[in-house]
Amino acid sequence: MPPLRDKFSIHSRAVVCQDVEMRGDITVGAGTVVHPKAAIFALVGPIVIGTNCILEEGTILVNRRKEVMRIGDENLFEIHCRVESPVIGDCNTVSTKARLHHTVRLGDFCVIGAGCLVVPVEDEVLPDYTVVYGPNSERRVWSGRGKLQEQDLRRKHAEYLREMLPKFNRLRRSE
Amino acid sequence: MPPTIRYHCNCTSLASGVPPPPHLPSSAYAFHPLHSLYFCEECDAVRCNRCATVEISGYYCPNCLFEVPSASVRAEKNRCARNCFLCPVCTNTLSVVPSDPPEPADGARTPVTISAVGEPPFFLYCNHCRWDSVDAGITFEKPTGLALQLQKTEDSAPEILELEKLKDYFEPALRQAQAQQQLHASSTAHLNPIQAAASSALSRDIPALKYSSGRRPGLGSSSSRRGVPPAMPSPGVGHQDIDDPATEYKPRVWMSAGGGIGHDAEVEWLANLGSQGGEGSSQPVVATSNSGEIATLSQRLHATQFSWAPTHSLRTVDLKPTRVPLRSKKSKRCPKCTHILIKPELKAQSTKWKIKLVAGNYLPGIEVFLPTVGQNPALKKTGKEKEAASAEEAAAANMMLPGRSYPFHLIFSNPLYDPITVRLSVQRSLPAASATPIVPDTPATPMVSQSHATAKRPPYAISLPTTSFLVNPFAEAWEYEDDEDEEMFDEDDIGINLGISRTPGRSGTGRDGGTKTKAKTVGVLERRANVTKIGGEVVVSKEGKGAVKFNMLVSYTYRSDDAAPEEAKTDASTPASKLSSTKKELLAGATENTKTFNFYTVVDLGAIAPKEIIAKVEKQERRDSVQTVGVYN
């Protein structure tokens, strides 16, 4: 295995705390907030995170494939979730302690409920507006109603975090 | 399974109060964990959830925590009348949300300003599964007062209309029955009102029965029906005979004869489901991935169970949100003396109790540990062998092997503010052929091991200390001082931390592990704060199998403030009273009013490993010892 060369490109408006474990080739887009104690491991291929994403504590993003792992804009990764999927669209929510396998790809506006395991055996793309919920990870399709309010809320959330986190945490800047 | 201990409640046993032997399967119902038991102070008895009388002390909505007066409970059909609804898909509570503002016409992704109040129409939204009520067609103009807004639609539900029609139809018959009741009651006015009500109920005319009140079939609706047994007073003319075919009841929605089931539209829809393009399955109808259009059985049942509008339709889109069912706060009484055991506070949001007579505040708490059983040998293995071995090994590790003896610990904690002296005795489980009676152990012998010569002897022998031991009273942690203890021996593996700080004098008494002999595992092991640890031993015989369970009688004596001392009725009582008088110096008060209370418990030490698992484990161990460490497949 070729040795891991750390190369972080953190946008100047992104907020990445010092305590985040990062390895490999990682690009963090504008406005993204990464809470302390998150972990981003680009073990083989690079990881590219879009704009205005929020990665809360305990989030683990892992890329074990050679291809680029792309994460879209305005996604919310809640506490202790573990994501290995190679493609994630925009405005998704991965809730607390959810786990996504590397065979899943998310579309836009998907919601993975708390504690849900999305581990399909074969490669699968979750269409837009899919909601995974319940202890058995059942799925249904969201009508999309209320998405504007949710986007607005997420923007406000990210704005607040960008303002508050630097006051109490040290930030990691791009090298 | 870790060893457990449960307490016996007398309600299921016979008059003698002796619990059933634990190898009988029905004995499981007679024993309860301590946290689910109550204690009646008047009768001095343990009560369980089954024998306590329950009465409702109030109704409340679990969502809005509004206390509903009992009058409106019936009117609202046990549901919350305010804005509380359950999601039909995932049964979480719904919240009322405004709709999105209209998107800007240019379609660009400029952020839209969201007003604080929100825009109508409002609808119900589930945060968990993202279902919203617009699918079911329910929207509101205002975010409050949803019940009123829904009232109109609910009232025009087909079931309600049907009920109204039925009521109208039976109205004259009801009036008849009431009139008869009046007449009958007036003639027997001198009778006891209960008897009068009973007799009038018995002789009431049942309109639906064709042969009621002596009427013959085929007579039709002629007035000859009324010239009948003199016991039936005639109510007069002008009644309508319900069984007359001319006035037969017609339901509102009439299925024409020969029209089939009438759900043709639905049958067609089902047939079309499978053949739609996107499904990808060649079979018609229902594959497992039905794209969520068909309501699952549990969703349909939930809609029927919690609402009065059963859904005949199979579609998910027809599932309507149901109102939140109310919950009740209950108070419990002792069945014999009707004193209140449990009384909750009236406020819905408070979880405290006005009266709380739980057994945990009166009976000593007992915990059981088997210190030598339960180390998992699977932890020593690495890599892939772990999965193969774990099933049998884990099972075997927590079980006892036949032919060995295991020490076990019983930890007693005293909830009272007075010290108690406890005596234990093992109850023999008596198979019918046995001739050994229940033996009360004499106080002199420190260790008694019981064995049987009967045909059906239990596969284990229990030794317990039979002297009575003291458990100190409960007090706050900082109040504990050095106590004058009897001799005690600390076991090597006291790793059990009870969270109570050790008093400074204790560490001075060293642990002498080296001079321990086998006899010392039985007896008082340790005493600190209000907790005493007792050691016992169980010897598992070679052909033992099944669970090791035994009934144990615990009797404890404490000082009470009652005028007359009471003694328990078992034969353990006399030594106890003797001992209590000898322990006078420990009891501070001058009056020696002591009370003895005894209760039965069942101690389950776990199962004895059956031979198959032992054989498997031994084979695995032999195989592993050959493999070298560090081999990866």
Tell me about this structure.
The complex is a heterodimer of chains A (175) and B (633). In chain A, 13% of the residues lie in helices and 33% in strands. Chain A contains one helix and 21 strands. Chain A has one helix at 147-168; strands at 7-10, 15-16, 21-23, 25-28, 33-34, 39-41, 47-49, 54-55, 60-62, 69-71, 76-77, 82-83, 87-88, 93-94, 99-100, 104-106, 111-112, 117-118, 124-126, 130-133, 138-141. Helix content of chain B is 18%, strand content 21%. A six-stranded antiparallel sheet of chain B has the order 2-1-22-21-16-18. The chains are: A mainly beta (175), B alpha+beta (633). At the A-B interface, strand 21 and helix 1 of A face strand 8 of B. Chain B: It comes from Serendipita vermifera MAFF 305830. Chain B: It holds the Pfam family Dynactin_p62.
Provide a concise account of the structure shown:
Chain B: Its main location: cytoplasm. The complex is a heterodimer of chains A (175) and B (633). Chain A has one helix at residues 147-168, and strands spanning 7-10, 15-16, 21-23, 25-28, 33-34, 39-41, 47-49, 54-55, 60-62, 69-71, 76-77, 82-83, 87-88, 93-94, 99-100, 104-106, 111-112, 117-118, 124-126, 130-133, 138-141.
Query: How would you classify the helix and strand content of chain B by structural class?
Result: alpha+beta
Q: Say what the CATH topology of chain A is.
A: UDP N-Acetylglucosamine Acyltransferase, domain 1
CATH superfamily name of chain A?
Hexapeptide repeat proteins
Question: Can you give the helix content of chain B as a percent range?
Answer: 10-25%
Give the overall pLDDT of chain A as a whole number. Answer: 91
Q: Evaluate the radius of gyration of chain A.
A: 15 Å
Total number of helices of chain A:
1
Rounded average pLDDT of chain B = 68
Strand order, sheet with most strands of chain A: 2-5-8-11-14-17-20-21
Radius of gyration of chain B, in angstroms, nearest whole number: 36 Å
| Oligomeric state | heterodimer
The global form of chain A is globular
**Poorly predicted parts of chain A:** none
Structural class of chain A: mainly beta
**What profile does the largest beta sheet of chain B have?**
6 strands, antiparallel
Distance between the termini of chain A: 24 Å
Find the CATH superfamily of the domain at 364-372 and 395-428 and 458-476 and 520-560 and 593-632 in chain B.
Answer: Immunoglobulins
Shape of chain B: extended
